[in-house]
Amino acid sequence: MNAALPYNELQRLAHLHALNILDSGREQSFDDIACLAMSLCRTPIAVVSLIDSDRQWFKSCVGLHATETSRDVSFCAHAILRPDDLLVVEDATQDPRFHDNPLVLGDEHIRFYAGAPLVSAEGHAFGTLCVIDRVPRRLDQLQLNSLQLLARQVMQLLQLREANQALQLSQQKLLTLYNQAPVAIILNHLDDGRFIEFNPEFVRLIGYSAEEILRLNTADITPSEYAEEDQHKLQRVAATGRYGPYEKHYIHKDGSLIPVLLNGVLIEAPDGEQQVWTFIQDISERKRAEQIKNDFVSAVSHELRTPLTSISGALGLLVSGKLGSLPEKMDSMLTIAHKNALRLSQLINDLLDMEKLIAGKMGFDLKRQPLVPIIEQSLESNKAYADSFDVSLSLHICADEQDIPLMVAIDAHRLQQVLANFISNAVKFSPPHGQVEVHLIQQLREIKIAVIDQGPGISDEFREHLFQKFTQADSSASRQRGGTGLGLAISKTFVERMNGRIGFDSVPGQGATFFAIFPLANRASDLSVTPNH
Ligand code: ADP
């Protein structure tokens, strides 16, 4: 009689196939358990049988020369219908399910069968561990228990096999990623930077052979000017578990410098040692493209500056009326042309400043000097601009009496550029009849220069982009108001190069405050104050 199908047959089969065990080779551990079952139960045959869709396949078969039979004649196909119980058939000729079974009637001459189902945690009965005899018999309780225990061991083996396969698969996946990644990956000791492991891309990047790399540490392939920053990054990774993105150079075996971008994570080796995985991108191409772009911008800007200066000078002379009065229509057209020529000049000056900053060619002449005259000068030079927007400018000072005059160690010209940027932005974004206030606020041994406006403020989405190059919150609106999107990026670098900090406060819709903070340099003790970046 054919056995019914288990209620979870589809899932059971899917799981069984996923084990990848059907038609696999012999494995000693399964044979050992079958032998043990055979001797404990004193039968001539023991089998680890797995029930496939239309066959039973034997992972192990002791005492029987078969590797599989059809599912129709399988005793085990009946056993798996009750996953929690042993199926014991003491005399198959007396059992209506088996009395006409070809294995009973034919040469195999099976009479006795006891099978313990192999059941997964999900309740999938894959097959059985069974013992078989050619004469009717019984098993005592101890033998039945042993058979059940051994079936559990077979199941453990199947699970181990499954876990092992999953592990191998994921290891293979990782290894492929590690070996094929277009990113160099290295593992170093945290304490001395020696290499532990690295992928082929790192060997390609650095030019040394794998044996040579194992004798090096990161300092050997890093230009000495990065020593301090490297140290800093190591402290960071030790404290926070990661570092980067960090741009630096490595020294190739041939002596050339390779620009790279690093990101690292800290791990703990099984012996407790701290190690760092670092992912390294070769950014040579990007750097080359940036260089070409910078050179191009710089060359174009230089070429444009001279003719533009003469155009705006000539237009300035014309609109000033010094060469005689102009017809009204012509005057207004020339005024527009003059304004735009000045705007272009500003853009070109910003671009040239940016290029100099990037190339590290801009010098800063930090001199200890009183702050107030510089601020007053800035207000003075931006007054005409503010007037043209119908915006008023005012200065407010809030400082300790004994610290006046407020002394700072800065480059006056560069600070005026920063203030011109803050003030012109504040003016540009102010409503008509608005007020822009410049406040000098002493905060302990620092002085904050704040430019406050009543404009629309900074939207939440734009906040983090504000100090990036060529960014404007709303390019159409800013285009109407003029500007290059470079001003704040340049200001930030200027302020930081003068040992200050830059920032802003703004509630959208309620104006903005842009500020720069510098250490005071009034007292001898102020000079030892470490700059805050
Ligand atoms: P721009 O030359 O365009 O003014 P900036 O770098 O100085 O370049 O400013 C970048 C952008 O930041 C501006 O276009 C504007 O969107 C925003 N911004 C700067 N200052 C203010 C302000 N006071 N109020 C509102 N938005 C501002």
TrEMBL record:
<feature type="domain" description="PAS">
    <location>
        <begin position="170"/>
        <end position="241"/>
    </location>
</feature>
<feature type="domain" description="PAC">
    <location>
        <begin position="244"/>
        <end position="295"/>
    </location>
</feature>
<dbReference type="InterPro" id="IPR035965">
    <property type="entry name" value="PAS-like_dom_sf"/>
</dbReference>
<dbReference type="GO" id="GO:0005886">
    <property type="term" value="C:plasma membrane"/>
</dbReference>
<dbReference type="InterPro" id="IPR036890">
    <property type="entry name" value="HATPase_C_sf"/>
</dbReference>
<keyword id="KW-0808">Transferase</keyword>
<feature type="domain" description="Histidine kinase">
    <location>
        <begin position="299"/>
        <end position="522"/>
    </location>
</feature>
<keyword id="KW-0597">Phosphoprotein</keyword>
<dbReference type="Pfam" id="PF01590">
    <property type="entry name" value="GAF"/>
</dbReference>
<dbReference type="InterPro" id="IPR036097">
    <property type="entry name" value="HisK_dim/P_sf"/>
</dbReference>
<dbReference type="InterPro" id="IPR005467">
    <property type="entry name" value="His_kinase_dom"/>
</dbReference>
<dbReference type="GO" id="GO:0000155">
    <property type="term" value="F:phosphorelay sensor kinase activity"/>
</dbReference>
<keyword id="KW-0472">Membrane</keyword>
<dbReference type="InterPro" id="IPR003594">
    <property type="entry name" value="HATPase_dom"/>
</dbReference>
<dbReference type="InterPro" id="IPR004358">
    <property type="entry name" value="Sig_transdc_His_kin-like_C"/>
</dbReference>
<keyword id="KW-0902">Two-component regulatory system</keyword>
<dbReference type="Pfam" id="PF13426">
    <property type="entry name" value="PAS_9"/>
</dbReference>
<protein>
    <recommendedName>
        <fullName>histidine kinase</fullName>
        <ecNumber>2.7.13.3</ecNumber>
    </recommendedName>
</protein>
<dbReference type="InterPro" id="IPR001610">
    <property type="entry name" value="PAC"/>
</dbReference>
<dbReference type="InterPro" id="IPR050736">
    <property type="entry name" value="Sensor_HK_Regulatory"/>
</dbReference>
<keyword id="KW-0418">Kinase</keyword>
<dbReference type="Pfam" id="PF00512">
    <property type="entry name" value="HisKA"/>
</dbReference>
<dbReference type="InterPro" id="IPR029016">
    <property type="entry name" value="GAF-like_dom_sf"/>
</dbReference>
<dbReference type="InterPro" id="IPR003661">
    <property type="entry name" value="HisK_dim/P_dom"/>
</dbReference>
<dbReference type="InterPro" id="IPR000700">
    <property type="entry name" value="PAS-assoc_C"/>
</dbReference>
<dbReference type="InterPro" id="IPR000014">
    <property type="entry name" value="PAS"/>
</dbReference>
<dbReference type="Pfam" id="PF02518">
    <property type="entry name" value="HATPase_c"/>
</dbReference>
<dbReference type="InterPro" id="IPR003018">
    <property type="entry name" value="GAF"/>
</dbReference>
